[in-house]
UniProtKB/TrEMBL annotation:
One of its GO terms (molecular function) is UDP-galactopyranose mutase activity. SUPFAM superfamilies: FAD-linked reductases, C-terminal domain, Nucleotide-binding domain. It comes from Clostridium felsineum. Its cofactor is FAD. One of its GO terms (cellular component) is cytosol. This is UDP-galactopyranose mutase. Its EC number is 5.4.99.9. Belongs to the UDP-galactopyranose/dTDP-fucopyranose mutase family. The keyword Isomerase applies. Keywords: FAD, Flavoprotein, Isomerase. It comes from the Bacteria.
Amino acid sequence: MFDYLIVGCGFSGAVSARLLAEEGKKVLVVDKRNHIGGNSYDYYDKKGILVHKYGPHIFHTNSKKVWEFLSRFTKWYLYQHKVLSYVDGKLVPMPINVDTVNELYGTNYTSDTIIDFFDKVRNKNIEVNNAKDMVITKVGEELYKKFFEGYTKKQWGIMPEELEKEVTARIPIRTNRDDRYFTNVYQGLPLYGYTNMFENMLEHENIHIMLNSDYRFIKNEISYKNLIYTGCADEFFDYKFGKLPYRSINFEFETLNEECYQRVGTINYPNDYDFTRITEFKHLTGQKSLSTTIVREYSSAEGEPYYPVPRKENEKLYLKYKKESEALENVYFLGRLGQYRYMNMDVVVDEAIKLVDRIKEKN
């Protein structure tokens, strides 16, 4: 008899498993994949380059609580991510900052005068109802088309005006020359990789792990008191209200016999090619090698679910499943898929910590 059956061995499952195990609870974690770590799983390829199987994962947070919790299981490579965007045949900083504008238009704006430029180009007179409106009110129609329209269409498979405004609300516009993609207090990657961090987190006498195990086929074979589910909410309920839409990604890895492929960790391609971006892993990990590995990302409607699609009708459908889940005894839904929310890793960790705190209070 296990106190908790946890479905999924990504951040949600692993964090809640560790915290419950430390409370003396017997925990079984099951995952249908053949590895731990969920979408954060990384491994060394044939050339010894540490790569992220499911695309680049850069950890960043303002939460000291979250950072200190994870720091129990890893040391950090203190990396600050930089992104360029390939626009009009030029590689320019992303998010848009003073240098982006100057390089595109051959201007000489400074941090003091760039506000005049944005005031001139942005549309202040529209009501913000969707992702397109959100960008236009910040940078205007032209920069929206150069940086956001094509990228968003590729990533989500629909036009920005069909997406909720929150999709682009999180993209900053800089009035200085700061070219870091994130400005959080804590930024970095686990020094020896995410997989190593997960191994340390799950190393506890009260935690048992079953890989290559689909919850649906084993749930009646295992005795447990409580369930934490981090898979797709609609799948749990056999799609009784219909399927929730997710976006997937196809990854194309390439190892090259050259020391460096591109200037920064990631380059976005909003208007050219079928892929959305190229990431070179050595920038992220700080490894030194005469070879390098890159990954191109192609968004897709089919395949492994990665992102909930933020639209009003999808949220409405999800709320039906949420109501259904709240009627269940001792069953908890966690994570991007379980909560149908587009969350960064730190928020996922925080949600898991909060859930275990609520369970402790309840008991």
